[in-house]
Predict the 3D structure of the following.
Amino acid sequence: MYLCTKLKKNCEDMRRFLTITVLLTVLLSLSQTAEGRRRIRKRKAPAAKEVIRKSELKAFAPIIFGADSVVMDSPLRTISEMGMESGTIIYICTLPEVKLSSILELSGCHDFAQVYIDEDYIGQIDGTQNGNTLELPPVHDGQELKILVEAMGRKQTDDFVGLAGPTTLTADIDGNELTLSMRRWTILSVPDGFDIVSKALAAVSSDSITLPDVSRKAGYYHFQATFVPNGTIYLNMGNFGRGQVYVNGVLIGQFSNTGSKQSLQVLRKYLKRGLNDVVVFDVAGPRQAVLSAQNHPAVGQ
């Protein structure tokens, strides 16, 4: 009887020992896994290496040179009404004198819009984030309001691409709210496509181009660059604003300095030995017209 009791107690002790051993093994494994993850997170990304041997800005064409059609003295028209599937539209309207600051409202804007008075940049309205108003400074009679609406790469699926609703100026004059509805516009369409890019750059030296420019910086930047021949490269678009990039006539992609699209992958098959033609179509304008490329995407891009 005594022997049985002792054997039973030894078995219970053994079960406790095995249970504790298993628990310790699991905890150790989890600890090692967590430590491994921490080590992986602590590893630094390899430093980006510049892969441009030589780069030169060969030409610049204002965005207006890409316009393929113009309508004058017209009510507002959308992209589809201008016969485009995607692209950029420039709306121009002559203003009366408004001695005080006023509020511009684009109630039908569902895209990214930049606003100018004559050639002076005033600000932007991001219709993709439900924005539709912008404060304007006092203006003189005859000054031009210019609105550049960009929907590049976005296919026309309804009537809401471009300015699709009323555009008004509202000012407080002697305690009274005055609202001006603008209905007579000059509208220029700038489609996407390398054929438009080529036409714009070819027109740079033409004396026949007399259309007004919407901005001194928005337009087509033509670079010639030589790259280190080591395969795929990544164009770093951090110097630029918002737009598209073509390499040797091929659309590589879109970029934006307000989002994550700042590194564009260029596959080796699109690159040439020697000089490569890189065209940056920038609808916002760069901080610096300087091309940069690395052997892998910048961190976080």
Remarks:
- The helical segments are 2-42, 194-202.
- Residues 206-215 have pLDDT under 50 and may be disordered.
- Residues 90 and 148 are 5 Å apart (CA to CA).
